[in-house]
Design goal:
Layout: E1 2-7, H1 10-18, H2 21-50, H3 53-57, H4 60-102, E2 107-121, E3 127-134, E4 137-141, H5 148-154, E5 163-170, H6 176-179, E6 190-198, H7 201-204
Antiparallel strand pairs: 1-6, 2-3, 2-5, 3-4, 5-6
Helix pairs in contact: 1-4, 2-4
């Protein structure tokens, strides 16, 4: 019996595609929320003080924050459209890889982890890389497509002897024009799309 440790999903297509756009989107939504909140709060305060809505609308501070709120609301769709446009090619590429995986254009290797290595690269040697073999197939988990954050941070690959089943796709089987925004490792030219760990039966009944 196998337990799934990782699987490439449609949701991940969106997350990998947006990338830094998530930060920009979050920041802009925070600004939008803050501006609207300030506008509503000021309006409530002024209404409490002056009661008459016409007097509220003539307040200089109210008019200023109202104008800013209108501008931010109107610009928001434009900002979102720019973010989507800038990352649409990434989504197309990752979505293509996802569809190839789901359509069966992939390989499965099963066995024990061998030649397990963990080392660090980069200018400050702060990028963790995991390298290992299963049944002669080399996998290198780094900054490239091979589920870097998920496996590196969650330590799905732990040690030599770990019994795994790995589903992966090969770069040579893909249409370059459709996945051009995704980088494969220069040594392995493969991308992991699913990791399963063998679970011994006696553990299930403990």
């Amino acid at each position: 019996m196998y337990e799934t440790l990782y699987e490439f999903t449609k949701t991940e297509c969106y997350l990998k595609s947006i990338g830094a756009g998530i930060i920009v989107t979050g920041f802009w939504l925070f600004i939008l929320f803050s501006v609207i909140r300030t506008y509503l709060k000021l309006r409530k305060i002024l209404q409490a003080e002056k009661i008459d809505l016409n007097q509220v609308k003539n307040d200089d501070e109210y008019k200023e924050i109202r104008l800013v709120t209108i501008i931010v609301i109107m610009v928001t769709p434009v900002v979102m459209a720019i973010i989507v446009f800038m990352h649409k090619d990434n989504f197309i590429s990752y979505n293509y890889l996802y569809n190839e995986y789901k359509n069966g254009n992939c390989y499965i290797v099963e066995g024990e982890v061998e030649n397990y290595k963990v080392y660090y690269v980069g200018r400050d040697e702060d990028i963790r890389v995991i390298e290992f073999n299963i049944d002669g197939v080399l996998f290198i988990i780094d900054r490239d497509y091979e589920v870097y954050d998920e496996i590196r941070d969650n330590c799905a690959i732990k040690h030599n002897g770990q019994k795994l089943k790995i589903t992966y796709i090969l770069e040579k089987d893909l249409d370059l024009e459709k996945y051009y925004m995704v980088v494969f490792n220069d040594k392995t030219h493969n991308a992991i799309v699913k990791i399963e760990e063998k679970v011994e039966w006696y553990f299930l009944y403990k």
